[in-house]
Amino acid sequence: MEKIILIKYAELNTKKDNINMFLKTLKQNLEKRLCKYDIEITYDKGRMFVKTEDRFDEVEEIVRNTFGIHEVITGYELINNSLEEIEKQTILFVKDLSFKTFKVETKRSDKTFPLESLEVSRRIGGLILKNKENVKVDVHHPELVFHIEIRKDKAYIYYETKKAVGGYPVGTLGKGLLMLSGGIDSPVAGYLAMKRGVKIEAIYFESPPHTSVEAKEKVLSLAHKLSEYACDEIKVHIIPFTDIQEAIYKNVPHDYLVTIMRRMMYRISARVAYQNRCKILINGESIGQVASQTLTSMSVINEVVKMPVIRPVACFDKLEIIDISKKIGTYETSILPYEDCCTIFVPTHPVINPLKEKCEEYEALIPYEKLIEEAIQNKTTVKGIKQEFEDLL
Ligand code: ATP
Ligand code: MG
User: Fold this and answer.
1) Distance between CA 142 and CA 265 in Å, rounded?
2) C-alpha 85 – ligand 2 centre gap (Å)
3) Tens digits of per-residue pLDDT, 111-126?
4) CA Rg, the chain, in Å?
5) What is the pTM of this model?
6) What is the C-alpha separation between 125 and 367, in angstroms, rounded?
7) Considering only CA atoms, which of 71, 283, 252 is closest in space to residue 160?
């Protein structure tokens, strides 16, 4: 009998016609995430199976944290699916388990198996009662549910099912462009979008010399952290934003600085997204968090693009976002104190109810089309990378 990880498909089962694409991607993603381990992955329409010779618990933990997996079973694969083998291994298996009440549940996908599921459960239940002292059957609230799955050629026994992270396999729902700043919110937004199966590329606006090299390194480090969930290193498009920011600073009344700056960021992001076949923009805006995230601000900023903008943390409290960022390992990097271009040009009294007409009036004072073109032409694209400072965290 060999210890094995069985993956339940749960929500993936609703993807009738596309299920093969989902499963193929899930397998590839698992292979990438588990490339350091000696593993073998197989699947059929009902289950995916992961076998490993190495550190089973570590592999199982990674599987549980891979998007697209809802429940994971620690099971045992029998050498064949004969009743004799199931009986023999059941006796060995329950010998070391401690429980007082139990029930047996059997699933039979191999319909050529000579007994029906209920009959197997009854026989194996009787066998357990005979071989284990002081235990009894309780069909309503058993301490242990002993599962038997009879498949073609093989049978599986298990009693332990663990909850996994859920979502869809990354890459099955297309690609989005994440507006990634060095803060707490945007990495969490990226994580949540990936959880729904969206592959991401990132865009970062830098304004040297107002923003430091460290601020950029922090963003690349965050992209690298997210790549663990992405199953690949994430591409980061770095946009030189200094000229645009300085032009805004010189020409626009200061209460509108942030609104106009964000409209420019949106315009550039949508174009870069389009060029890179990203279907949506993703960012870390959260309703009410700052002046540019009131509903009026969001709508005036959003109106410069047609592309859908997904804000995964829009309805989360800051503390909830912080909790996720700690759980996914981005928090320590996010709180490093390097200035980001937004914090430098923040006025003391930013407008909270900006008017579209005023934005247009102020924008007419800046040759922004030309500046946007230049910024996009001068963008550099790199991949997220582990930074030296991470070892100190
Ligand atoms: P975060 O903690 O994610 O930085 P925040 O609370 O600082 O968010 P803002 O600075 O208003 O909020 O930014 C809102 C969102 O806009 C960010 O979550 C991010 O998606 C995007 N954004 C802000 N600054 C940049 C930047 N320099 N480059 C790319 N995206 C940015
Ligand atoms: Mg920020």
Assistant:
1) 57
2) 60
3) 899 999 999 999 999 9
4) 27
5) 0.92
6) 79
7) 71
